[in-house]
Predict the structure.
Amino acid sequence: MTAFVIDEMFPPAVAALLREKYGHDAVHVCEIGLQAADDADIAAAGRAEGRAVVTQNVVDYAGERDVVLVFILKKNLTPGGGQAAALAEALDRWVHDQPEPYLGPHWPAA
């Protein structure tokens, strides 16, 4: 099963929903002391803990090659209060479609 670290542009509720509703191992950067951290530090944490990094910062993670990167653009998600639920659902679908994701960038449908 894929574990996640959710970047700070997404609400912490995404990690909570992934854990509570879908049964996934997920943390938000604010839960692990990485809020406002450099993207390289978040990638390093994802790599060290075997977690996919969920972010929309495509350019900032362009140099990362040995970590699973899941790119989701906020503009493709339900605006407002439904964003966390929409992202959690999209990530759950992605896990079922990619049970053993390769290292590098992924672009699941939101």
The mean pLDDT is 94.
